[in-house]
């Protein structure tokens, strides 16, 4: 089933794109992440220009985050005060990211920048995830009880001025910390087309010291609004959002999320994290390989 993508200016198999969206949905249901950090490189491998892949993936992540926020809200798993601060930071970061995106696009290096960012980010995150999952598997195999981690914020966070009380998260910290964190995620969302949950969730846990019960819901709340702003900025500045591509991805992710939720109830969390880490590292290696190989045709597609 061939479908023409007007912004990407190419025909694709619609079923393949829906399948990629379904994979994103499965990951969302399994791990509580948007999945955009895998959708964009997979679209690039399929032949979609990196600029269009990054802009359209952020649109799809917006839709996939809505149901997640509603589900976590029903059980009180969203810190709206913390989420509002990170959203403000994300909006500021999206503006900075838009300027960087246009700059690298103007000098013809945006495709390379996106690929390099993915290699660095996926390589680092995949390695950390693999180490944590392997350690947890070894502990469970040896019938050892994992030592509970102490929940406290980073010393740099404690040094920031002007503290607020975030009651739902159980924190008394400066709002500058989540503001800066949100800004960083906003920049990455604009450049890479990711929701940022794969960075925001561990950062909220280990840097801000948030309660684990509200981390995923608050992260999805941030992702929802930041990707909306990012999509609007892409549509107004880079003009790289392909709504046909985003609709196909969203169609797959809706059904995939249901499958992922069912799988999450049956499989061991340590095994799932190890599988995801392997997939992330495999994609990082594939993108690294692509950076060093001469393409068949040396050109890039720049939306008008």
UniProtKB/TrEMBL annotation:
It is a multi-pass membrane protein. It is found in: Cell membrane; Membrane. It comes from the Bacteria. The chain crosses the membrane at residues 12-38, 44-71, 83-104, 110-130, 171-199, 205-228, 240-259, 271-289. Keywords: Cell membrane, Membrane, Transmembrane, Transmembrane helix. Belongs to the 4-toluene sulfonate uptake permease (TSUP) (TC 2.A.102) family. This is Probable membrane transporter protein. It comes from Tsuneonella deserti.
């Amino acid at each position: 089933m061939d479908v023409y993508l007007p912004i990407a200016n190419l025909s694709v198999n619609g079923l393949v794109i829906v399948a990629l969206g379904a994979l994103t949905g499965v990951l969302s249901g399994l791990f509580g992440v948007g999945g955009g950090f895998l959708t964009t490189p997979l679209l690039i491998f399929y032949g979609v220009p990196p600029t269009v892949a990054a802009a359209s993936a952020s649109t799809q992540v917006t839709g996939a985050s809505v149901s997640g926020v509603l589900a976590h809200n029903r059980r009180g798993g969203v810190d709206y005060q913390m989420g509002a601060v990170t959203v403000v930071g994300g909006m500021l970061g999206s503006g900075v990211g838009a300027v960087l995106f246009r700059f690298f696009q103007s000098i013809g290096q945006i495709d390379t920048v996106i690929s390099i960012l993915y290699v660095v980010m996926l390589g680092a995150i995949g390695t950390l995830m693999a180490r944590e999952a392997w350690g947890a598997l070894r502990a469970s195999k040896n019938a050892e009880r994992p030592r509970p981690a102490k929940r406290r914020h980073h010393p740099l966070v404690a040094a920031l001025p002007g503290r607020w009380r975030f009651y739902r998260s159980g924190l008394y910290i400066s709002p500058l910390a989540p503001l800066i964190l949100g800004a960083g995620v906003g920049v990455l969302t604009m450049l890479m087309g990711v929701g940022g949950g794969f960075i925001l969730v561990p950062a909220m846990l280990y840097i801000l010291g948030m309660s684990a019960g509200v981390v995923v819901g608050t992260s999805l709340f941030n992702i929802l609004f930041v990707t909306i702003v990012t999509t609007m900025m892409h549509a107004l500045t880079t003009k790289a959002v392909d709504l046909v591509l985003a609709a196909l991805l969203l169609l797959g992710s809706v059904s995939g999320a249901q499958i992922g939720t069912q799988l999450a109830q049956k499989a061991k969390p340590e095994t799932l994290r190890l599988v995801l880490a392997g997939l992330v590292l495999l994609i990082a290696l594939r993108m690294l390989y692509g950076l060093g190989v001469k393409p068949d045709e040396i050109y890039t597609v720049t939306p008008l």
